Structure formats: C-alpha cells, structure tokens
Amino acid sequence: MSASKEITVDVVSDAVCPWCFVGQKRLDKAVASLPDIDVSISWRPFQLDPTIPPEGKETGRAEGIAFDFDAIKVSPNTLDAHRLIRWAAGSGGDVQGRVARRLFKLYFEEGKNIGDHEVLIEAAGESGMDAAVARALLATDADKAEVRTEIETAGRMGITGVPCFLIEGRYAVMGAQDTAALAEAIRKVSEAKERGELENAAG
Fold first, then answer.
1. Considering the entire predicted model, what is its pTM?
2. Three-state DSSP class for residue 125
C-alpha cells in the first residue's frame, strides 16, 4: 500500500463522554468501509463533564451501544484512564484502541468506576497490556504532567468539545458525525494526499 494511502486519525476524546463512545463506533465503521486506505488511529486525552440528552440513548442503540446510565454511580476523574490509554500506545498493534473501547464499555455499559485502579488494571490485562506494569505505573505520578499538557494543547488548538477527529494532524472533524461523513472526510484527505496537495497546503 502506498504511503499516500496511509492516513492518521487522532481521536481527541474522554472515556466518560458518551458522544465519544458513539464517535468511536462510527469511526470503526467508517474505517471498515475504506479497505483501500490504511488508517492509523491514535487516542488523545481530553477531560469533559459528561452530559447526554435523552435522545442520546436512542443514538447509542443505533450504534450497538447499550447505555446503562442508571448503573453509573461515580463520575470519575479520568486522568488515570488517560494515562493508561497513553501507555497502551507503547504495546503496539491495536492495544491502545482496545483499551479505549474497553473503558467506554466498562463505564457506559457495565457501570464500572474507571477512576478505580483495579478496574483500570483489569482493563489493561484484558486489552493486551502487561497488567503488572500498569499496576506499577498507576501507583506513581508517571505521565500525569504529560497528559495534562496534551489536554491543554487540545484547548489551545481550539478544541472545546469532543469527540474531535484530527485527520493527518490538520483537518478537524468535530462531534460524533455519522459514519458516512467520517468516511468521506478520510477519503477526501487521502485523495488530497495522493495528489500531493497536503504538502502544498502546509504553513
């Protein structure tokens, strides 16, 4: 596959943002609909107060999400969850994506407190990370400053809500757009890259 067919998507999201869970499902479907494009997905941190209107439950159901808001007893600080997602990137493959997806399910479908280290360690092990390493790191302040800096950087870039999908680091798709819109945005950027237009547009 040519380099021009390789596209990066940075997903700026929060594990307790219901629209980010919807956006993750739609992004997965969009990527699956583009077999000729190699889409590399990275997860970036953001911290948000989680709110979703009643119609959001219907939206979730349409995307295969069984939102169980009644089961959610704690609205956790997600800094440690973001640290775990950050470390997952070093495990290679789609481990980071698996961790992000697992945390969404744990929080929104199983009502688990994803601020609890034991819940995070279990999610790490289930997703292909070394659970012992996750346990050791969570007990420290490792990468707390780095995660906070990334969150501040997103704010400076003008990102005030999530999910935000950054394609090739420069084209932002805001909100949980439908699958077709995400796929179209990725395809358009891929085609522009193939024509060499992204380099010309830099600066």
1. 0.92
2. helix
Look at the chain and report how many structural domains it folds into.
Answer: 1
With 0-12 / 13-18 / 19 or more C-beta atoms within 10 angstroms meaning exposed / middle / buried, residue 140 is exposed
Which structure tokens are listed for 41?
Answer: 């997905």
Q: What is the mean pLDDT of the chain?
A: 92
3-state SS of 49-94 is CCCCCCHHHHHHHHCCCCCCHHHCCCCCCCHHHHHHHHHHHHHCCC
DSSP secondary structure code for residue 173 in this structure? E
Q: What is the mean pLDDT of residues 70-77?
A: 90
Spacing of C-alpha 32 from chain mean position: 16
- Residue range 27-50: average pLDDT? 93
Average pLDDT over residues 57-68: 91
Residue 56 binned pLDDT confidence (cut-offs 50, 70, 90)? confident
Supply the CATH number for residue 182's domain: 3.40.30.10
Range of the domain at 73: 3-201
The two structure tokens encoding residue 184: 């179209």
Rounded to 5 degrees, φ, ψ at 125 are -65, -40
Length of the chain: 203
Residue 84, burial from CB neighbour count under 10 angstroms (0-12, 13-18, 19+) = buried
